[in-house]
Amino acid sequence: SILWQAATVGESSNAVAKLVTKASSDGVDVADFTSKDALTKAIGESIATYKSAGGVVLFMYSLVVTRTVEKIRSDVMKAGGDLPMITDLGLCTSDLVSLCLRGEANGNVGAFQPISDENGENIKLGWPEGLGVGLLSMDEYQTKIPVADALKTPTHPVWLMHGGDHFTVLWSESLKLPNMDDAGEGGASFSLCHWNGLPPNGPRLARLNIQAKEQAAPAPKKRKAPTQYEPVIGEVEGIVQADAEMKKKLPNGWTTWRYEVQLAGECTKEEGTQYDPRPDGAKMPTIFDLKGHSAAGEEKKTWRCAACYSTRFKTMCFGMNDLKDGEADPKCENCGRLRSVSGYTIWLTYDELPGSWKASADRQFAPKIVSVLRTKWPGCQVEQVDDEKFGAGNWPSV
After folding, report:
1. Average pLDDT, stretch 44-50?
2. Distance from chain centroid for Cα 267
3. Handedness of CA 104, 107, 110, 114 (dihedral sign)
4. How many beta carbons lie within 10 A of that of residue 291, not counting itself?
5. What is the CA radius of gyration of the chain?
6. CA-to-CA distance for 211 and 191, rounded, in angstroms?
7. How far apart, in whole angstroms, are the C-alpha atoms of residue 157 and residue 178?
8. d(Cα 75, Cα 105) in Å, to the nearest integer?
């Protein structure tokens, strides 16, 4: 099916699939097929070749010569990508994944067109059924663009998992799509299997138990540019880091850690930033009063200047200061402001973080597989079934 759809996409007739049966420095041996049945029979008779070392490479060659280099180059350019489809570091691109999933190398797996219209909006795109296999991606958090609806909720209960550097495979243990419509008050419970074939974290087959109260809604018809409101003094503006000692003591206990956070202040606002007007009646962020919190690091005779930290990407200064005995209002050694003026970072426990910042902590510090699963099932609870080979607490890698 993978190879035949590469031959038939955009072709109303005269489709020809090309199967590479042998490759060497002298060239490749190619067999042509004008019917899917004949192609399936030929692959079945030579299946040992494609399951042996180098067999996947032969199949990738088959995809390329079937689709043709010219069409692949055009496919890739539509999504703003570039060749080759495997990077110099040996990483697979979404272009090659798309070639396998739907027969063309258009690597835009997102729900929207990559270029906005004259109103600054991105129009929703459809995704062809293709193989009926889905994809979930960590990139959603960086780009703020969900993957296409047909990939998030595919025909078959199988998903490629994109953690950023490579792809793994996830499927429903029951071989059925989890049914959220029949979920009770506690949500739906189901089990997923995850396969990672790449050393050193694989080969590994892992089992995950999921408790989910909802699944991601379909993407809207249009995507508007994200809004940015002017920060409110005292709201959390960023998580600096998790407590290193807590991380060491409980490596996967991110919900039990405390976090160093920067609060918005007069000295942390970005100069020249054009903020969007906050709508009337909009929910205001949770506010924290610095007077009720000591500076993060005081227990170790240090503190961080919030004003310096807010400009760290311009100055490469992260605002750290030594705290001298008896200093009630120390001066920042970097910017010269008094701490009462510049502001300082504080500790908040995970439970004290506002909801959106809990989600941010989850994305940054939870096992990556949890974050990727939550693009499909927001807020789901994930339990890793004990794995004798890899040990309890050693989460599957994506």
Report:
1. 93
2. 32
3. negative
4. 6
5. 26
6. 9
7. 8
8. 5
Burial per residue of 343-352, b for 16 or more beta-carbon CB atoms within 10 angstroms, e otherwise: bbbbbbebeb
Are 310 and 270 a contacting pair, CB within 8 Å? yes
200: preceding bond cis by omega (within 30 degrees): yes
Q: Classify each residue of 179-193 as buried b or exposed e, where b means 16 or more C-beta atoms within 10 Å of its C-beta.
A: eeeebeeebbebebb
Predicted TM-score (pTM) of this structure = 0.87
Nearest to 221 by CA among 375, 111, 108, 147: 111
Look up residue 62 and give its two tokens: 């088959």
Fill in the amino acid letter for 3.
Answer: L
Q: How far apart are CA 276 and CA 254, in angstroms?
A: 33
What pLDDT digit, counting tens, does each position of 323-338 carry? 988 888 999 999 999 9
SS3 of 172, please?
strand
Identity of the amino acid at 222: K
| Structure tokens, 1 | 């099916």
Q: Prior bond to 203 cis, omega within 30?
A: yes
Confidence of residue 290 (pLDDT cuts 50, 70, 90): very high
Cβ proximity of 34 and 16 under 8 Å: yes
For residue 340, report the phi and psi dihedrals to the nearest 5 degrees.
-65, -20
pLDDT above 90 for 65: yes
Two tokens, residue 158? 């199988």
Over residues 214-226, the pLDDT tens digits come to: 999 999 998 887 7
Of the candidates 342, 227, 325, the one whose C-alpha atom is nearest the C-alpha of residue 273 is 227
How many CB atoms neighbour CB 391 within 10 A? 8
Q: How far apart are CA 166 and CA 227, in angstroms?
A: 31
Phi-psi region of 27 (alpha: psi -120 to 50; beta: other; left: phi over 0): left
CB neighbourhood size of 96 (10 A): 21
Number of H helices, E strands in the chain: 14, 15
Give the separation between CA 159 and CA 161, rounded to whole angstroms. 6
Which tokens hold the place of 369? 């597989």
